[in-house]
Design goal:
Blueprint (H helix, E strand, L loop, with lengths): L8 H7 L36 H20 L7 H4 L8 H10 L3 H15 L5 H13 L3 H11 L5 H13 L3 H13 L6 H13 L3 H13 L6 H13 L3 H13 L6 H14 L2 H13 L6 H13 L3 H13 L6 H13 L3 H13 L6 H13 L3 H13 L6 H13 L3 H13 L6 H13 L3 H13 L6 H13 L3 H13 L6 H13 L3 H13 L6 H13 L3 H14 L5 H12 L6 H11 L1
Family: Belongs to the PPR family. P subfamily.
Protein name: Pentatricopeptide repeat-containing protein
Keywords: Repeat
Length: 605
């Protein structure tokens, strides 16, 4: 919900001078409340006298009605006819029904039904009963609708519970609106409520709200506790400011407090991603020293971080140590480890873990299947990959973009782009969206097989779909166009990349320089080389050599020597065959600089 939206119930209600009433042309508005009715027109039933006998009768009928609305699906259609001689809309009776109805949703349904028949302006106590019941049931959307419908304002204590409900449901920005209302009426929420808001913001990834809540909390004079600090540490980690989070941890530890495992785990995850393994080790020792034993989630962060940094063997060692110490890895950790082993091509160990998790009662999910399928594709065992893919489909998984991409990528990597394209067409037939990975895999697959036309067609389709291309979308096309002598078409694609804000890979300039050299366009090739060097890009050694060879063969020795000098400055040395060829050319030249040039070349090669 937008902060300035008119649907913001609290900003809206503060501007209201009178509570909203529900108008019905055939009925007069009545006041419903625990205290009973106020006024009734002469043509309507008078309130039922509240003697002992009548009160007992009302209670009995209220129980019956409460049971009816619990058990009968369409009770609204028949309830009036079920009690022809009884006023179901009597305020005292309505409150009695609320008293006997423990289901907040059914109370709300009865409330709306009564209001649709007679119109009402409910009092504070009745509204509190319904609102608090909805909040207690975590029915956040129903509670919001009820506030907007009745235009009543709950007590501060009820609003604090509502804040907890909103935060639990991920509606953190709307919780901020409630905080602002409490501030306006002069009520300061408890520390527990502030902490719930901070936790909700962290879970929603809204660090901007974390800092806003914390700032307002400080303004209110609320003193933070160790939980508050833990959420701030997590927020620093979400903002990729792991070192600041670590500094805050050290401060709180020095003060004698120990945050929850979550704060430690987020710091460990952040340092794993950044490769600061010494900090990870220090955090583990700190946890143990402070009696805050690392849990399975702590080690999961470590293993995940190691696998992401391609330290899969170290991750596997820790995984096995965990099991030896009696920890029980969950399906997520097994999947992470299977994925890491597959990246290392340790398919035997990956399959062992697959069967091990099944034996322990964990069912592989789509991510686990895709990890193992990807592993089989990496090692070229496409038949096994197909078999596992079909098994995944049979179990009800698989018809997603990710699973299709796994198979498409595997097929394209092993020269089976046509089969991959069949899956691509199947995705369209089944309504599964293609994404950038789908197109990039197919473009690379077809181009590697020499089918540049199909690669170009797929690039155009990618652009027509409104997807933003990546460097990989163009690189292989530029490479193959240069190889087949279509270098100027490759340059057109390179310029198109720039126009679309896609940064070309350095190797694309290498391909173009090599292509220009093959076509004899040496002046243009030297210009591209100069542009690379000015952009602080380092051309490949082969790029220099191809250009030097071409220039030498065309007797453009001055230009060749200029390129050789650039090559030497970078730190490359000429291969012997190219060196001898160039020396031979120079020996046939009558230039007075021949002896010096040959000496420099031989000395630095």
């Amino acid at each position: 919900m937008a902060r300035n939206s008119i649907s913001n119930s609290f900003s809206y209600l503060l501007l209201r001078q009178n509570p909203r009433t529900i108008q019905n042309p055939s009925q007069q508005i009545r006041k419903i409340g625990v205290s009973g009715g106020e006024e009734f027109p002469h043509n309507q039933s008078k309130p039922i006298p509240q003697n002992h006998h009548n009160h007992q009768k009302i209670a009995e009928i209220a129980k019956e009605v409460s049971r009816t609305i619990r058990t009968r699906p369409k009770w609204e259609q028949t309830l009036v006819s079920d009690y022809p001689n009884f006023d179901l809309f009597d305020p005292g009776f309505v409150c009695e029904v609320f008293k006997h109805q423990k289901n907040a949703f059914l109370s709300l349904r009865f409330f709306y039904w009564v209001s649709s028949h007679c119109g009402l302006s409910p009092d504070q106590i009745s509204c509190d009963v319904i609102f608090n019941g909805l909040v207690e049931a975590k029915a956040v959307n129903a509670a919001k609708s009820f506030l907007e419908f009745t235009a009543f304002m709950p007590e501060p204590a009820s609003l604090e519970s509502y804040i907890a409900c909103l935060c639990d449901g991920g509606l953190v920005e709307e919780a901020l609106d409630v905080f602002e209302h409490l501030k306006v009426v002069g009520a300061c929420p408890s520390l527990a409520t502030w902490n719930l808001a901070l936790l909700g913001s962290v879970r929603a990834g809204r660090t901007d709200l974390v800092w806003k809540f914390y700032g307002e909390m400080m303004e209110c004079g609320v003193v933070s506790d160790v939980d508050t600090v833990g959420y701030l540490i997590e927020a620093f980690c979400l903002d990729s400011k792991v070192s600041k989070g670590y500094d805050l941890l050290r401060q709180v530890l020095e003060a004698g407090y120990v945050p929850s495992n979550n704060a430690f785990n987020k710091l460990i995850s952040g340092f794993c991603k950044d490769g600061y393994h010494s900090r990870v080790s220090a955090l583990l020792h700190t946890m143990i020293a402070k009696n805050c034993a690392p849990d399975v989630f702590t080690y999961q962060e470590i293993i995940n971080g190691l696998c992401k940094r391609r330290m899969n063997s170290e991750g596997f060692r820790i995984f096995n140590e965990l099991k030896d110490r009696g920890y029980a890895p969950d399906a997520v950790m097994y999947t992470t480890m299977i994925h890491g082993l597959c990246k290392m091509k340790w398919l035997g160990d990956a399959r062992k873990l697959w069967f091990e998790m099944i034996e322990k009662g964990m069912v592989p999910n789509e991510h686990t299947y895709n990890a193992l399928i990807h592993g089989f594709c990496i090692v070229g065992n496409l038949e096994e990959a197909w078999q596992l893919y079909k098994e995944m489909l049979a179990r009800g998984y698989g018809e997603t973009t990710v699973s299709y991409n796994t198979m498409i990528s595997g097929l394209c990597s092993h020269g089976r782009a046509a089969e991959a394209h069949d899956l691509y067409k199947e995705m369209s037939q089944k309504g599964v969206a293609h994404d950038l990975i789908t197109y990039n895999s197919l473009i690379q697959g077809f181009c590697k097989e020499g089918n540049i036309a199909e690669g170009e067609k797929l690039l155009h389709e990618l652009l027509e779909q409104g997807l933003k291309p990546s460097t990989a979308s163009y690189t292989v096309l530029i490479e193959k166009l240069c190889e087949v002598g279509r270098v100027h078409e490759a340059i057109t694609l390179w310029n198109d990349m720039q126009d679309r804000g896609v940064e070309p890979a350095a190797c694309t300039s290498d391909f173009i320089i090599t292509g220009l050299s093959k076509e004899g366009c040496f002046t243009e090739g030297i210009e591209w080389l100069a542009n690379m060097l000015q952009s602080t890009l380092v051309p490949r050694k082969e790029t220099f050599e191809r250009l030097i060879q071409g220039l030498s063969q065309r007797d453009k020795l001055e230009d060749a020597l200029l390129v050789v000098e650039c090559m030497f400055k970078i730190g490359y040395a000429l291969r012997e065959c190219i060196c001898l060829s160039l020396v031979d050319k120079l020996c046939k030249d009558n230039s007075h600089r021949v002896k010096t040039c040959i000496g420099n070349i031989l000395e630095r090669s």
